Amino acid sequence: MDLPVDEWKSYVLQKWSLLPKSTQKSFPWIPAGSCYLQHCILFRPEDEMFLKRLSSGYLVGKDPGAPLFYREQGNKKFQEKDYMGATVLYTKGVSHSRPNTEDISLCYANRSAALFRLGQYETCLQDITRAQMHGYPERLQLKMMLRKAECLVTLGKRQEASQFISDLESHFTDRQTLAASQFQILQSTLCRLKRKVQEKENPTETFPAALTTGFEDMNLREENEQISCASSSVTLCTDPLKGRSLIATKDILPGELLVREEAFVSVLNPGEMPPRRNGLESKWDTRVTNGDLYCHRCLKHTLATVPCGGCSYAKYCSQECMQQAWDLYHSAECPLGGLLLTLGVFCHVALRATLLARCEDVGNVTRKLCGEISNRDICLPKSKNLVQTLSHDLGRESEKNGETVEPPVSGCDVNGRYESNYNAVLHLLPHTRNHSPEHKFLCALSVAALCRQLEAASLQTLTTSLKSSQPEAAVVPAMCQESHIWGPAMLRHMLQLQCNAQAITIIQQTGSKENIITDSRQVRLATGLFPVVSLLNHSCSPNTSVSFVSTVATVRASQPIGEGQEILHCYVGDDVLSCGRASCTESASRDHLVSRLQDLQQRVGKAQKLLRNGKLTERAIQLLLGCQHDAESFLSAEHSLVGEIEDALAQAYAALGDWQKSAAHLRKSLRVVEVRHGPSSVEMGHELFKLAQIFFNGFAIPEALNTIQKAEKVLLVHYGRGNDEIQELQKMKSCLLDLPPVPEGP
Predict the structure, then answer these.
(1) What residues have CB less than 8 Å from 578, skipping those under 6 apart?
(2) Do 116 and 158 have their domain in common?
(3) I need a labelling partner for 200 at 20 to 30 A (CA). Which of 165, 303, 461, 568 fits?
């Protein structure tokens, strides 16, 4: 959820309606520093208590009863041979456990067993090490040590395996603490493993060779001297009406990499995290969320996360990632987990961006925040343009050198270079005048509440650090002593995000792996700020495609772009019915259309659920055909929901074996994807892959081979040859080419 929860929004809206008209009228036009002080004054103790009640509904602390509950639930899944489900539940148990306790060691050990059954041997070894590090009971060591030996042997680590087996045999034989039955199991297992070590020559788990050569085009061939993270094929321009933009400096071919940028800041989307209610099942949620499967810092997919030692919410792919997050921002965020979930992702991103600013030139950032923000359009109707502010500084330098220097584009440094850093983030436009007073008041009060809690948490941290003689723990208090600076910064970032936030997406499989046709959809994994990607202006007819690997965004040309043309990207979300361009149809009754859209989305979701369950396919088709008819009456043919309906109909007819109808509907979905994302986009690649599957299963050999070639061409650009879908396409092609020729008729 980008914005705060509905309860807080309603509360703030009511508070706004009770303010005197004079206060409402003057609210948007107060300078930033004074504006923040007024926000703090307006944030009353009763507001704080209300927000505290909302925040307390989220279980983000370490609950001492949770590890046993999750371990038992995980054991049930393990017995049912649902090892993936067991892994996630053990992970939840790990997250609620305190470090160096039997609880956490048992959860790690159990998770290692599930990972072993999933064939994740390296990760299994990591969990075994973690279990031992946290004091796994000696009485239970045998089974886990045998599992470790199995992993070493299976991975082909012959020397290490031989030494470990020898040590294991000596350890348990010398101690003579095993029962006769256990000793017999030990001896037979070790004998079997010794034989396997002697026979083993190559490891079972290898890194695909294709992956080492499949990403030769993942880096920029020639980086831009003016813009970091951008290709030399583009340049940065500014226009009085359109603002900043990227322009092609030469003819660009489809698939060419234009931008490769790591997010300055990103926050994992929490997904559905309803507040807890009475009752055990609702208190300890067993549902799988992205927060259980992805690192909260680098967004890497992992089955074996490492939890924060202070909360149960933040999880990481490794100890190193956890420590980096703690040093950069999580030490401040950790005690605020429930509040951040209540205030929404935008507020969280705004806080984290401000915390990350500490890692750059703090003095310079502070000067900018004090001087420039207070004079920007964040509050003043007649604000001074930031380019003028910067050119004023440059002017003094130019006079000294006796030269006339053109002022740089907003966000550039004094040398005119645009870097992917906090200076660029600071200069992203908040478009304050486009926000309603109510929205600005909601953002302002939310930021004031966050600053108030930061101050309270920092005071406690400072007291603790003084008692323990740890001055390094006082970094957050130092920041909060300048809350009159950082408060307006957070407010600015929260307003910027409405237009500049980038949804970090992944293609996620939603159906069963047994489905004949891949059932996947694009889902938002996180929200981030990419200063260079933000230079791309919006178009309903984009010429680029954006894809993500962890926190890195790559922008590629999705069609030929001529020299001098603007580089454009479509960033209108699925919840928007029309954009602000004159060429787009503007709705006269937006609220009514939004209601119709939400109703249609619910019906489509119901049909998709029927399809995922593998039952009542005919009923799902009837529902989807009705949705298709309704969509035609008020949605454009290129709306994403129209494509989603056609994609679902293709899935349904494929399940019935009607390949001709399935292909017809998927072609309609392809047209939507091509219009929205471009012919060389990663989204287009995934849809072409589905179409290739349909033609393959329907024995439409020429169509299948043609579609396989198109899908391979697109997906290779984005993923390299190690991608699962590319490998499946190659198998399908080999199979079709190996078929005997169809005899010609008489």
Answers:
(1) 584, 585, 586, 587
(2) yes
(3) 303
